[in-house]
Write a structure and sequence with these properties.
Among the domains are: 10-137, no CATH class; 264-311, SH3 type barrels (Roll), CATH 2.30.30; 319-401, Alpha-Beta Plaits. It starts with a helix and ends with a helix. By secondary structure, the protein is α+β, with helices and mostly antiparallel strands. The chain is built from 14 helices and 10 strands. It has a 5-stranded antiparallel sheet. Strands 8-10-9 form a 3-stranded antiparallel sheet, covered by helices on one side. Helix 2 runs antiparallel to helix 3 (49-79), helix 7 packs antiparallel against helix 8 (197-223) and helix 9 packs across helix 10 (246-261). The longest helix has 31 residues, at 10-40. Pfam families: MS_channel_1st, MS_channel_2nd, MS_channel_3rd. It is found in: Cell membrane. GO terms for molecular function: mechanosensitive monoatomic ion channel activity.
């Protein structure tokens, strides 16, 4: 008889059925908890205690519900004098899954929220739980011996698959801890006063980078990997930088240049090419610029170092706007200039110091060209919108006082008529 069929005794089939039921009920509980928590935390702040506790309970819905069904099923089997050894193993597996998911979730609170972080949370949690599950089932030691037999020799010292696996797990844990500590330090630095925003970002990025490199070296050292084994990899990386990765390296170096020379800082209003907006973030490879349409553009750091960039708020946030207007020669330019200045003084965003002024610039073909010059100190709130408001206000003031804005026109004078004698004789 098939050994598998022999193993499927009625008692074990009952246990497998209870396990399937427990997993299905746990999945349904997780779906329901996810919907309820999403509704309860829709307007809650990201770092509020209520949101953290509710999101943590969401992680426990699946393992605890499945554990409750498993314990109930095992108690029923024991009452019916049936075996329950498989269900006995499921209890520590589900408890360890609940503890690991909750621990990893609380560790991620020190990192920047986002969909990528949630994916990494699931990967790390499942990886740790897989190791714990293998240990509880008694399969970890045989698997370790099997991986230890496979050896690789990239350098003078052999490296086994078990060593690589341990290195990956340990480096992952050290990397997570250093990233968590680095993010906590970054938040403290960004909240510190008395330091410019650009300098705070630069210090925070350097500290995080140094801590990550230090954590990587510590992880390799704890595993016992000889760093000389990575000389081939280092050479390949150098060749790659020389052949195809020089743009990436250039963006990284340019990012540190921007951080330390403080030419561009978070909150600055810049124009590069046809892009206009204010700087949201300074990243290692690019900066994030948000325009008035709500569109965020990622501009490589190399472009900012090698191209001409207009920084509207580099040393002073005050920006002067120029609004040209043309009036007819039949109108009084002094009245028009006075009206333009009055319109500027009544606008809430126009500064009183320096005071707005209007100038008569030239006498053009179609009329007299005037220009209103006014200062604002919040260019991040928009420039074209205030130009539009000023133009509308000037048009209304001119209309009330009878000042006309001419349209292009041409006058053709005929100095004589051609001789049509020959045509009349025909």
């Amino acid at each position: 008889m098939n050994p598998i069929i022999q193993m499927l005794t009625p008692g074990r089939l009952w246990q497998l059925g209870i396990i399937v039921l427990a997993l299905a009920v746990g999945w349904l509980a997780h779906r329901l908890a996810t919907q309820r928590v999403a509704q309860a935390t829709e307007n809650a702040p990201l770092r509020s205690l209520r949101r953290i506790l509710l999101r943590g309970s969401e992680r426990l819905a699946f393992p605890l519900t499945a554990l409750l069904v498993t314990l109930t099923g095992r108690a029923a089997l024991l009452a019916a004098h049936r075996p329950g050894e498989i269900l006995a193993v499921m209890t520590p597996l589900l408890l360890s899954l609940a503890a690991i998911r909750l621990l990893v979730y609380f560790l991620r609170q020190g990192l920047r929220p986002g969909p990528t972080l949630r994916a990494w949370e699931q990967i790390v949690g499942l990886s740790i739980w897989a190791v714990v599950a293998l240990h509880l089932l008694g399969w970890l030691e045989p698997l370790s011996k099997l991986l230890d037999r496979v050896q690789l020799t990239p350098g003078t010292h052999p490296i086994t698959l078990l060593t690589l696996f341990k290195a990956g797990m340990l480096i992952g844990v050290v990397f997570l801890l250093t990233w968590w500590v680095g993010s906590a330090i970054e938040r403290q630095i960004m909240a510190a006063g008395g330091i410019s925003a650009g300098l705070r970002v630069g210090i925070a990025k350097v500290i995080k980078f140094v801590m990550l490199v230090f954590g990587l070296l510590i992880g390799l050292n704890l595993v016992g990997i000889d760093l000389t084994a990575f000389t081939v990899f280092g050479g390949a990386l150098g060749v790659g930088l020389g052949l195809g990765l020089q743009r990436i390296a250039s963006n990284l170096v340019s990012g540190f240049i921007l951080l330390f020379d403080r030419s561009i800082r978070p909150g600055d209003v810049i124009s590069i090419g046809d892009r206009f907006g204010w700087v949201q973030e300074l990243r290692a490879r690019y900066i994030v610029v948000r325009d008035r349409d709500g569109v965020e553009t990622l501009i490589p750091n190399e472009n900012l170092v090698t191209s001409q960039v207009i920084n509207w708020s580099y040393t002073d946030r005050k920006v002067r706007l120029k609004t040209p207007v043309t009036i007819s020669y039949a109108d009084d330019p002094e009245i028009a200039l006075r009206l333009m200045e009055e319109v500027a003084r009544t606008h809430s965003r126009i500064l009183d110091d320096p005071s707005p002024g209007a100038r008569l610039l030239s006498f053009d073909d179609n009329g007299m060209r005037l220009e209103l010059r006014a200062w604002i100190q919040d260019p991040e709130a928009g420039v074209n919108n205030i130009r539009s408001e000023l133009n509308l206000a000037i048009w209304r003031a001119f209309k009330r006082h009878g000042i006309t804005i001419p349209y292009p026109q041409r006058v053709v004078h005929f100095s004589g008529t051609p001789d049509t004698g020959d045509q009349d004789r025909r």
